[in-house]
Amino acid sequence: MADLIDIAIKELGYKASESNTKYGRWYGSQGPWCAMFVSWCAHQAGVGTSIVPKYAYVPNGIKWYQNKKRYSPAGSYTPKRNDIVFFGGGSHTGIVESVTSGTLNTIEGNTTNSVARRHYSLTDNYVMGYGHVNQYITSTDGTSTSDTAKSSAAELAYLKQVLARVKKQNTQTAAVQSYEISSVKPNKVDVSLIATHSGKKYDLPVKDGMRAVFERKNAPGKLTFTTLADSKRKLYEGDSVELRINNNKFFYGFIFTLKPQKDGTLEVTAYDQLRYFKNKDTYIYSKKTSAQLLRMMAKDYSLQVGAIANTKKALTRSEDNMTLFDIMQNSLDETLMNTGKIYTLYDSFGKLRLRSPWKINILIDAETGQDYSYKSSIDEGVYNQIKLAYENKKTGTLDVYISRSGKNINRWGTLQYFEKIDDPSVAKLKGKVLLQTYNRVSRTLSISGAFGSVSVRAGCLVPVLLNIYDVKVASYMLVDKVTHTFSNGEHTMDMDLSGGDFDSSY
Description:
The chain is of the alpha+beta class. About 20% of the residues lie in helices and about 35% in strands. The strands form 5 sheets. Strands 7, 8, 9, 10, 11, 12, 13, 19, 23, 24, 25 and 26 form a 12-stranded antiparallel β-sheet that branches.
């Protein structure tokens, strides 16, 4: 057997429409050809269908690997060269070339009608899972001894970074926080909504139930409201809207959707500048920080920029046919891995900002939050024993490395994470990292109906003080998503929170 990637590399640059490809001619039918490309590469490499199935429909490939017990969801397994990767809920597939510093490198067919390399963060939501192939190919993987050594050194460095970050987070969690709390009470708010069309400004009457939603990752700020369909104050797509609460700047964006209703009202959806980060593009950059990348994107798309944090770590990346959101998030994820610092991209009243978490001293407790939704579980993504196995070809044995928490095994029984590894030198550290990461109860917390504050948005930290069943929460928590609702002259918030004593999506 040869190497799938060796075959795939020779195909780089091949272009064809879905109606006529050499992979389709080999397969026996024409159409979307990402899966046919994978199957063709396996066939050319002499890899049998007992290892890589011949498939044209991506969900069939996923089902095949699942039935063979050779499928791992993203996040539960570190993919290796020649493994098959599946994307987007089963809409696309490719071949893993390598993993470097948290970045998944692939070769894919039918990506912009061509065979090309692609790069993703291992935490990218677009990555669905992997079919295991590497361990079933007995021939060389095409890398030299020096290449393997470099790969092992890189993985060791990466694992040390992860371990340091986990320890730092745990230390911060354990530290007792003190707050200077601002009192928030359910008081009446004054709402001012102004639309601008062709230089003319209109004060818009707003029906109860106006909502502004801000998320920390890969979503623009969104404002939805209902106003009167007035012939003297007509609204059009692209018109700007600005919302002020008690004369405080709160939201600035542009109308994207209009829905006239029979009762003479008009439902409106507006987004801030981050809506344009849904655009797809290709960025190949060298030695640029995330801050510099953001400024470059803003210039390319004529977007307004405000204060941007100095992210310091210079990166070199190649991102092809990806949304600006994904390109930016990949850069921020790699910055996190290298520096241990997280940053949030958001729009502040018409100015793009990049900022590390900032504290908003608005206490969330049993009085200020109307209700909460809490769940604790050890059913998914929780492991108290890590078992790593190395196939030692010199001795003909399977060398096993185990990291375990006796305390939690006594409490929960054995919940085991298993993975085969290529290099035993990383086993001890990798086991330690995985145990640090997964040996804890999974907890989620959302707050609904909290007294509203215009200063709260995704990316900030709010102090939370709650006694919830088996947990006392007394720490700052990161706001992953916040929905501000304005109704009957009152302002309330719903929030999804992470960090602190809870799981973090860092």
